[in-house]
Records
---
Amino acid sequence: MSLQTKAVFEFGPFRLNPTERLLLRGQTPVRLSPKVFDALVFLVENRGHLLEKDELLRKVWPDTFVEESNLAQHISILRKVLQEGDDGPRFIETVPKSGYRFIAEVRELCDADRDDNSLQDATAEPQNVPRVLEPGARESAPSRHNIRNVAFAVLGLVLLLTASILILPRWRRSRSLAPEPILSLAVLPLQNLSGDPAQEYFADGMTEALITDLAKIPGLKVISRTSMMQYKGSQKRLPKIAEELGVDGIVEGSVLRSGERVRITAQLVRAATDQHIWAESYERDLRDLVALQDEVSRNIAGQIQKRIAERAPQQLAASAAVNPQAREDYLKGRYFWNLRAEAGYRKAIDYFQSAVTADPQYAQAYAGLADSYALLGSLPNSKIRDTAMPKAKEMALTALKLDDSLADAHTSLAFVEMHYEWKLREAEQEFKRAIDLNPNYSTAHEWYAIDLIALGRLDDAVAEAKLARQTDPLSAIINTDVAEVLYWARRYDEALLQAHATLEMDPNFAHAHRVLERIYDEKHMFLDAIAEGERSLALTGEDTWMLLDLAHTYALAGRKTDMQNCLSRAAKISSGGVLPETGTTAEVYVVLGDADRAFQVIEDLYRRREGGLILLKADPPFDGLKSDPRFQKMSQRIGLPN
């Protein structure tokens, strides 16, 4: 049976018409790309029989050589369109190492069947036709039963006409409406089809690159990488993922790297209905990787912009050509940077440095170096802060000299200006520039919120932190930062709700327990605060930061023996066996009423240019020092607003 068959097939809630190239679910058309439609027709025509992969490839792509992965991608699309459940296949069965079989019961409607039905309708006895009486015949008087039937018929006709008048215009309007616009998007982690776990960095890097490119489209909300990576390997259905993230569309696909060739398969799905809008495959040499990424991003952007109501398309700028080895090193660097740990930052620096050595004009690699040095230098008690932070600024400025449109480079520059140089207003301008370039860059919103707290603009800071959460809703650190910004803004009840919501997402996120401990401190709920402090300490081990926080809570609760025990443990594990001088150490002295010791610690933090000092006026535990003239003088030295 060929694609020109005049048969129509019914299976489940679907009707397939090969001649009209139409698939209906009930009365609703289901859009399929041409090759996906052809694959479905061949499977249905040969229902119950195993179709070898080679046979399907020959029939669907008779004039083109494609690999099995392309076929697998098309079958995956079909399964989603047919809404296969999690309890096993209903329509398409995979026969391992062989092929596929269509297993659903199919009813075939041929032309003869449809003609017979039409003939039956045409020859059916007419209903409600007036009878013609023979001459001289006399019609009997109508019975009450007949009168009642006529009355009911008339009433039914009136109701039907009324319903038609009320409903038909609305139905016509709904039929004429365009599909709902796509105003928000999530890019699922691209699948690594190479079979080599060492290539995960490659698939993850391409995912991040797509997210970054698509996030530049004005008016489109794009979910950040951190939230999306939580769906890596997930078997959740797309409508469920869309509901969790609050998006209209989802991009999914795969990456296959074989030798010096790369293939990307991508598709755009309307999330709520699982309707496939667009799908395409691309293949290039490894040296054309950046051009391949650009092409995929532009095509997806074009499809999305067609569906953004009343918005003019914006052409995504093409990236400059990049040395293939430099690009690969960059992707590896981003993979390790995203681990967000000291060892990861150091490994990332090695790869980013290799990238700029291979291609000295590669702006993104310099931005990667800036990101890595900035976060490495901001770690608590960092031993290399005085070298890492200036290096971060140097790399950011180099990146921006090569390409001023890099939002991440502007963000890293702003971070150094805020956290190390204490140039809060200069940092604000860089954060704004980054957000203008990429409104969906959650890190820029997150760090800008901290800058606004330091500037004393508390409501603006809360709003900015919530913007970060919108584009990265599943990030534990961003959700925790929202709670902490609310805490700094003295909105303790809201902060409490946000901290609990974060721990519902990730009960083992120690920093969220730490923030909850500090909120309870300010609400004088010391038993709850102690429980949270002990929980954060248990999750991190003998962490100096958590020990000092717990010591502060014990001091507030009047449990000085427990406080001293925590301080002794912190001193024991710190360098030289001396109690480390941190902002929390100063806070303990404030609780103990020793303002002189507190200011000694703050002075030492000033000499070391500790980033946390920009929150001196915002942090509630320091409120007890605000009446001291030394506090105002230190605030001015740091550059905090009056």
Note: Residues 272 and 513 are 35 Å apart (CA to CA).
---
Amino acid sequence: MKKSNNRKGRDVTAALYVRLSRDDNIDGESNSIVNQKKLLTKVAADKGYTNLLTFSDDGISGVTMKRPGYQQMLEAIENGIVSAIIVKDMSRLGRNYIEVGRLTDEFLPEYNVRLISVSDGVDSEEGENEFAPFINIMSEWYARDISKKRRASYKVKGASGEPLGMPPYGYMRDPDRPKFWKPDEEAAFVVRRIFNMSLDGYGSEQIASVLERDKVLTPMNYWNSKGVRKQGRQQKSGACVYNWCSQTVAQILSRQEYCGDVLNFKTFTKSFKQKARLENDRENWSIHENVHEPIISRAVWEKVQVKRTNIRRRKANSGERNMFSGIVFCADCGSIMHYRFNHRNNEIKYFSCSDYVGNKRGGTCQTTHYIRLDFLEQVVLGEIRRIMRFATRYEDEFARLVMDHSRKVMESEIETKRNELNSLKRRDSEIDRLFNTMYEDNVAGKIDDSRFAKMSSQYSDEQSAIAVRVKEIKTELERNTQKSGTTKTFLSIVRRYTRTKKLTPFMLNELIEKIEVYQAEKGQGEHSQKLRIHFNCIGSIEIPEIPQLAEPEIQIRTRKGVSINYAGLAANT
């Protein structure tokens, strides 16, 4: 921007810059915005400036130079409006000695602007002040020291389970315990509704559309209506206050805090000069369970997380969705099964393996594992009714069976993961040893530089892959140890559906984790097919042979001369 040559009024115009941040509160009222203005106004009058422009930044740290008032002052200088800047002390300009040095040594001289710092005795009209650079360094050191102390304080608070952030949507500060949260019932009702819709098969975009249709305030607009100041993107003027987006819904569905937990240190900053927050690895989080009153039960939250981590529901060619999408898997290859329909008869809908060699180039599964939707629905509903009868009629035996099964499964899973983890760690150490040997061979001339570089790259890539997998296994182990599904939880869910006659998406999501489909065994004019159903909280259990709990007899005729029979639940191996 060009400098103005019009000096009319400029020589008697001074910019008074005042700033206050939380760090300055410890200095008492002397640093208040009002007192700064009084002091600078008097100094300006003594120096002969009659036209005063005040630029202010209240509650903003001097570490950042992107302050609204500060930027407006620079713009006024570039436009040739002011001839002097007056501040209480150099730290008001900023606590970044590089940026403040650039301002005082380059920018202000270029525009011929006088700088007066009252407390530091700096006046550029009287000549260069040799101590100014040291004052700037000490200002930054002060900010660095404050940041260090604050980080240490946050670390102690965070490690003790005290929430470090503001309450998420659905919570509010507890008047009786201001450092902790309690449910904000009006918003908590919306949170519960979002989770229930997710269990009922709604996607994030669908949930957002329903909330907008029902005129539910978005979280930011809800806080604004309550007079609560929140950081984040504010609503644009004239925009709809009910305009929910799928990202907001997805974020709510992912928050573990709704189980009553406190999760600290999810983000971090690399330096006190950088305000951008970076995602922290989960292993560095500080997680404290059951600190607050939960809005969502842990069993419901975990079920929603399982749903969201599965492959997203897929549309059939007709654009139709199905409640089984995402939870039906091939029993042989483990691939998810796709929902499809028969092109000759659209009424026939079915699932088939997504990795079948006949439908996918490079597929590995040798059979389709085809299962009709109507057959699947009848089998699942029949098995749900059977396990309901067992759980309610033989509750003690059911509890013992589930506990024994859960213990065996969890012990097996944990042992497998720990073995893999130990194997990966051994391989990582072996790569370190190999690299050291290879380096010594390179120095001794036994391996040339190009060969050394190639092998180093290969080992580095392998170690990176190992680090990723180690992190995944640690997360899986943590989930296993924290898994809270119990017999009582399952029984409480089962009792809600004792008289149900139809399978619903909500019921399916509450009761079933996944279904494994086996390839049908062909017979003379008759096929038989087995399934393995993994129930939430209790897994895949085998019900004892009791006459009143016989497997459901289901038969569907698929085409002339051929019928499919349900052969029962596959035994655990």
Note: DSSP finds 15 helices and 20 strands in the chain.
